[in-house]
Write a structure and sequence with these properties.
It is a single chain. The protein is α/β, with parallel strands linked by helices and 567 residues long. The protein has three domains: 116 residues; 227 residues, 3-Layer(aba) Sandwich (Rossmann fold), CATH 3.40.50; 163 residues, Rossmann fold (3-Layer(aba) Sandwich), CATH 3.40.50. The N terminus is likely disordered. Strand 1 and strand 2 form a beta hairpin. It has 21 helices and 16 strands. Its EC number is 3.6.4.13.
Length: 567
């Protein structure tokens, strides 16, 4: 071969070129070995951390995986120096390993800086623009710059004057949204508030926490604006859904389901709805038959929670909530009182809730609206009620007040029917609403009363809660309810949304067992207590169990059983 190369100059040139390629391969092999050794020392050498290596504790799961892959790649390349032949592929692997290691290191540094800025995903952090950002469970509330710029003294004065109490175990301190302009809404969403002067205290205090995704308990008197307190964040949540989740929502579809009407029509309406407003019984019916699936519900509100428990719906409520997601669900509870039964329900289904209380009532005891003037007329004879009722109707339905709305409450359905007919025969325009009427007739009567075409409505306690009827000037209790809680909710149909109201109650010997509780309600609201009522005494009868009455004994207070073993 050498002789032929000597004789043939072209062949000699080829041999020299081959020698050059061998030398180039040798140099590449050395270079690859050096790089591999560097990577090995930087990442996996002797089990020690390099000065630039990130701490695993600050890395996310994805970043730790990337770093692990880089280590494996570097280890493979480091072992290449033991191979007989080095190829260009080894060099490429080494470069890839180093690149991956550098990428993982940068990602770790970024994560560490982020962790230093805020040590939790939930809570309040600064966004560097003199405003506050609160994040929780995927929701984010950015405090308006104008609200943030208000002096703290103005916020403190608002909290004191409105008798606000906000308790949060998380330690968040979000300013109440004291003006509608500070709500994070677009112009279209803000239009409905044009006729309102300012948010009510319960709305102002609740909105920041609810917009931030927190669970919340609101304790406030009747007519305080609780519906808008949870309604606005609900609609805001829907508007903020991703395009994939909301499927191009252009209108919020709300469906109301309740008993007394055909299920078929309601079942059809449930298809494609965004918000379901329901009574516990009918909602459970639809859940059991498979007409509604709550497994992906994100926003749950229990309104009038104390009333639900008082009327024996606790098990129904527990069944409903058990069908909703255990995590990722925002749960709200609004109530006029804060008894142990409601607290237990909140502890069971809510995650570190914020508690907002309106008024000097941190314990959540039963309180009446202080804007309602309460008058109690003690009567010795039952037959005195009807003549006195007509006198009051003539007094408050005359002259310029002829169209003022008056709500008359009775205890029983038959009594309501009798009183309605009695008033009608005396020449008054009146309608009725009670359990013996079908749903269509009830709705018709209620709508006529709301519109003012019928100024007097006779009702049982079916209308005592949850109905927002504007401009009810007077509530007359012909027969006192079975509980003082129902009394507070009855008179709460007047004096709503910051307006004044009046309630007149007929009280007889038949209700003397409730005199003590009524006296406490009157005193707490700063109302006069008649001497005739004081004669019945101030003793308050202990409330019995919903199902077992006075014979119920709480098993949590019973002596622990003793185990006996026989030889």
């Amino acid at each position: 071969m050498a002789k032929r190369a000597h004789e043939d100059p072209g062949l000699a040139a080829g041999v020299e070129d081959k020698e050059a390629r061998r030398e180039a391969k040798r140099l590449k092999k050395e270079k690859a070995a050096n790089r591999a050794e560097t990577a090995k020392n930087a990442i996996v050498g002797n089990g020690e951390k390099h000065d630039d290596a990130p701490e695993n504790d600050t890395l996310s799961k994805e970043e730790r995986r990337a770093l692990k892959r880089a280590k494996k790649e570097a280890a493979k390349v480091a072992s290449a120096d033991d191979a007989a032949i080095a190829t260009p592929t080894a060099t490429e692997n080494t470069d890839a390993a180093n690149k991956a290691a550098r990428k993982a290191s940068k990602a770790a540094e970024k994560a560490a800086k982020k962790a230093t800025k805020t040590d939790a995903t939930d809570g309040i952090v600064s966004n560097g623009e003199s405003s506050t950002v609160s994040r929780h469970a995927g929701a984010e509330y950015v405090e308006d710059a104008g609200l943030r710029s208000l002096p703290q003294s103005e916020i403190d004065t608002f909290i004191k004057d409105k008798r606000l109490a906000i308790e949060d175990t998380q330690g968040q301190q979000l300013r109440p949204i004291i003006d509608f302009k500070y709500l994070p809404l677009d112009d279209d969403q803000r239009k409905p508030f044009a006729g309102f002067k300012a948010p009510t205290p319960i709305q102002a205090a609740c909105w920041p926490y609810l917009l931030a995704g927190r669970d919340l308990v609101g304790v406030a008197e009747t007519g305080s604006g609780k519906t808008l307190a949870f309604g606005v964040p609900c609609l805001h949540h829907i508007a903020k859904l991703s395009k994939a989740n909301r499927k191009s929502i252009k209108a919020c579809i709300v469906t109301c389901v309740y008993g007394g009407v055909s299920k078929d029509e309601q079942r059809k309406l449930l298809n494609g709805t965004h918000v379901v407003v329901a009574t516990p019984g009918r909602l459970n019916d639809f859940i059991q038959e498979g007409s509604i699936d709550l497994s992906s519900v994100q926003y749950v509100v229990l309104d009038e929670a104390d009333r639900m428990l008082d009327t024996g719906f606790e098990q129904e409520v527990r069944k409903i909530i058990s069908t909703t997601p255990a995590t990722g669900r925002q749960t709200l509870m609004f109530t006029a009182t804060w008894p142990p039964s409601v607290r237990e329900l909140a502890d069971t289904f809510m995650s570190k809730p914020v508690k907002v209380t309106i008024g000097d009532n941190a314990s959540g005891e039963l309180r009446a609206n202080t804007r309602i003037v309460q008058e109690v007329e003690v009567m010795t004879e039952q037959q005195d009620k009807q003549p006195r009722l007509i006198q009051l109707l003539k007094q408050y339905q005359s002259g310029k007040n002829k169209q003022d709305r008056i709500l008359v409450f009775c205890l029983y359905k038959k009594e309501a029917t009798r009183i309605e007919e009695f008033i009608r025969r005396r020449g008054f325009n009146v309608a009725g609403i009670h359990g013996d009427l079908n749903q269509h007739k009830r709705t018709e009567s209620l709508e006529a009363f709301k519109a003012g075409t019928v100024p007097i409505l006779v009702a049982t306690d079916v209308a005592a809660r949850g109905l927002d009827i504007p401009a009810v000037k007077l509530v007359i209790n012909v027969t006192f309810p079975l509980t003082v809680e129902d009394y507070v909710h009855r008179i709460g149909r007047t004096g709503r949304a910051g307006q004044d109201g009046k309630a007149i109650t007929f009280f007889t010997d038949a209700e003397k067992g409730l005199a003590g509780a009524l006296i406490n309600v009157l005193k707490a609201a700063g109302q006069p207590v008649p001497e005739e009522l004081m004669k019945y005494g101030t003793t308050v009868k202990k409330k019995g169990h919903d199902a077992y009455g006075a014979f119920y004994k709480d098993t949590t207070e019973m002596k622990k059983a003793t185990k006996i073993t026989f030889d």
